[in-house]
Amino acid sequence: GEYSENLEIDKNVTLLGPGSDAENQATINGDCDIHVSVNASNVTVSGFTLTDDFCNNANIVYIGSAMDNVTISDNIIPDGDTGIWVNNSTNVTITDNQISGNYYGIYLIGDVSGGLITGNTIINNASAGISSGGGTTFTELDILENGITNTGDGYGIYFDQVVNSPESLTISGNTISENGNGGIYINFVQNSTISITDNPANSNNGGVGVAICGEGECFNSTLAVLGNAIEDNQGPGLQIYDLFSSSLSVEGNTVSGNNFGWGEAGFELWYVGSEEEEASTVTVSGNVFDGNFR
Questions:
Q1: Cα atoms found within 13 Å of the Cα of residue 240, Cβ hemisphere only
Q2: pTM over 0.90
Q3: Shortest CA distance to 15 belongs to which of 91, 92, 72, 78?
């Protein structure tokens, strides 16, 4: 059936629909506001179509501040402003959803410790498949085995800042391809650990395959880029800027075919210390660089 109203959840509850593959969908079709607002902990929403037929600028699912243990799974989430917005809530699991046609697919802000984003199909979202605002922190956040493709002029995964997050942002096993401005882009990193492993990041049409410290700096952090296939991007394959008092490992990656004539390299590393800061430690080992512009 179809429910033409917004849904506000303010108590512990599990809502189960027939599933994203069911012949007869259960559809929640709200107005130009937040369609499903989660303002309680220990909530599951699974198996619905959550759509925006009225104005195409709503936040489809909004998880409010200071919630804990929320699961959003097996839903179809198309055509809003933001598919799923997580605001300062912990232990949020987002899994096996189809998220398409939004401005942001998934947007994170505040403390999102213990989050798990896995198994989602995230396509045709205009600005980013998964994005975060400034000041996003976490003790642990895992982004695993998602398909993130065809953002308009944006990125597959974009983090503006990763700060004071020592227990690791892990980006692993995702397929990140054909995004308009680049594959994985992390702007500013401080006092944090980031692991980017085993991702195919390829054919991103307007920019870099993987960039860390893209327009900011990496300070007092541990970075690992391991076992990725970074291929056929229009910008450089792997780009790391302004690395201060940090540790970087680039090992076992295939970086090839990033050669669309912009004069970019397979691997670009700029600045690994300064007179004021301790030198960084860099390990580059076991990679294959082939067929890049330079």
A1: 26
A2: yes
A3: 72
